[in-house]
Amino acid sequence: MAKHDATRREFLVRAAVGAGAAAGAGLVPDSYAQQHEQHTQASAPASAHTHAGAEGHGAFFNSEQAATIAAFAERLMPGAADKPGARDTGVLNYIDLALAGAYADLQDFYRRGLAQLDVYCRKAHNGSFQELSAAKQDEVITALEAGKASEFTWPSAEAFFTTVRTHTMEGMFADPLYGGNKDFAGWRLVGFPGAQGFFSPTDLQNKQAFTRAPMTGLQERANDPVRRP
Q1: What's the mean pLDDT in 16-40?
Q2: In the prediction, which pLDDT does 14 show?
Q3: How far apart are CA 95 and CA 156, in angstroms?
Q4: Which of 154, 143, 151, 73 is nearest to 119 (CA)?
Q5: How far is CA 98 from its chain centroid?
Q6: 3 state DSSP class of 109
Q7: Contact 150, 120 (CB under 8 A)
Q8: What pLDDT shows up at residue 208?
Q9: Crossing angle, helix 3-18 and helix 63-76, to 10 degrees?
Q10: Any alpha helices (H) in 19-106, and if so which ranges?
Q11: pTM of whole model > 0.90?
């Protein structure tokens, strides 16, 4: 894995540890939702709308949008040997489900942000984001973070970057119940134990990363007929 990728991973992992590896549904800044309310007068094109269960589509994203978000999230949290990344942990699924539910007020934010991202990438690099090399994708992300990407009005480039990064972290480290953190890979990465039914005195005094397997999540229990009450 490139040094740049390793540095990015380390930053996000440290941030997750600092937040208790419990990125929840309330981490999106209120300012983004307020900005959304100020721009609802413009509707998205029909091609941007999807239906849950449609072939090749998710709960909210169409195929092109999904490919862009998957690639973007993977550059934010790239996978490596024995180290899960955004694709491995199902970050795309998490964001897709969230936008169809709890984060529905950010749907136009994402539609507009992705449309502007596509225009910028094609103008600056002659291709869509998912078609670019990893190095070019990093250049785009750096420009977004610095607010130097042209073609962005609302949301701003910085706001779009910050929101996708926040949601990527949530998808990596939130409870698997919400569609990400597949197989507890994010929790295992940072040594977070999850909701354990029992902690011994030794566990409570231990200052090292927790190594016991995380407790089975609610979603897994719901899908297992043997575990159902």
Answers
A1: 41
A2: 55
A3: 19
A4: 151
A5: 10
A6: helix
A7: yes
A8: 76
A9: 90
A10: 30-37, 63-76, 86-89, 91-99
A11: no
Residue 122 is which amino acid? R
For residue 98, give both structure tokens.
């969230």
pLDDT category at 63 given cuts 50, 70, 90 is very high
Q: How far apart are the C-alpha atoms of 191 and 39, rounded to whole Å?
A: 41
Instruction: Identify the weakest region by mean pLDDT among 27-36, 98-107, 193-202.
Output: 27-36
Alpha-carbon span 108 to 85, nearest angstrom: 27
CA–chain centroid gap for 31, Å, is 19
- Whether residue 114 contacts residue 128, with contact meaning beta carbons closer than 8 Å, is answered with no
Is there a contact between 89 and 172 (Cβ–Cβ < 8 Å)? yes
Between CA 24 and CA 57 the distance in angstroms is 25
Has residue 67 got a pLDDT over 80? yes
